[in-house]
Amino acid sequence: xxxxxxxxxxxxxxxxxxxxAVARRHPERFEVVALAAARSVExxxxxxxxxxxxxxxxxxxAALTAHPGGPALAEWRSGPGSIAELARLSEADIVVxxxxxxxGLQATLASLEAGKRCALANKESLVAGGDLVLAAARxxxxxxxxVDSEHSAVHQCLAGASAHDLHRVILTAxxxxxxxxxxxVLAAAGPKNALRHPTWQMGAKISIDSxxxxxxxxxxxxxxxxxxxxxxxxxVVIHPTSVVxxxxxxxxxxxIAQMGEPTxxxxxxxxxxxxxxxxxxxxxxxxxxxSSPLEFEPVDQERFPxxxxxxxAGRAGGAAPAVFNAANExxxxxxxxxxxxxxxxxxxxxxxxxALGDRTAHDLESVLNADASARRVAAAEVEAISRRAG
Length: 390
Fold this sequence. Notes:
The chain is an alpha/beta fold. It has a domain at 4-146: 3-Layer(aba) Sandwich (Rossmann fold). The protein has 16 helices and 11 strands. It has a 7-stranded parallel β-sheet with strand order 4-3-2-1-5-6-7, sandwiched between helices. A 4-stranded mixed β-sheet has the order 9-8-10-11, covered by helices on one side. The longest helix has 26 residues, at 364-389. The radius of gyration is 20 Å and the shape is globular.
């Protein structure tokens, strides 16, 4: 049995903590050798002490400077490039990229260029720079194994199949906390209600994205790059109980679904151990009776316009997906701070796409420039909305 060494980026977030929980239960298989976070110095210090990790990075240097950690933190890396440095570490076999947002792109590129397995929970890497990510994997010999439950499901369904056998994938979405909400309810919805996801326990950003279905648009773009499918062969259905994580339809009409309890521990364990499967008594045995009935509904794009905006950005290509992603990040933060309403998030993103959606993105610099420009346009739109409301 080969013991795999893990660099966990975004270690203090929900997927990062899930990865560490899996590593704790399987110390004979996984060793944590590096940890990174955006700014949670105290939590990161506790994790570094628990796992005996000396390679630690904090993206925000101010957070490290302000912490009274003294000599214990003296060897830590900090700054915007510090997380990508950990992704290149010779000591790490697998890089778990659970960084939130487009900030994870450089770490994804670095891990793949260094020939490592990138267990990718940072879907924004592929959304903002999909062509760059695939080129980095070819150049460095690294491999992408998805951690998102939907893409992990497709990966599992495709085991042993040829790319020529694949016809279509169908991603499932729970519909979030506002699946049946009226426009009046959506207009009045605040962060507290939007964060109450019915089936998954997740961080604030992805919970809001799930409530708006922006997350599902990001996943459609991610699937396009991961599985090499055109957008008209990637479908989405609402599945409220989140038992079926994805369907794969083959050219002969056969359909395979991956099913299981809605827990991120399963796709994380799969991504770390693949191509092996590891027994884990913590994961519950599937009960088909308790999971019945399996219900499916179409996506209501009128109620959730961010889904259509995101898929259209993916189809447009160029810098449009990066613009969508960056503007959406700004919109989510504005909503969490009560500066825009729930429907207002779509208006923020639409404004950025209208202004910048036709830009090209042929290298990392142009992607980062599109990201920065989209954030400026989105922030200006937030200000305009706030003034009109005030």
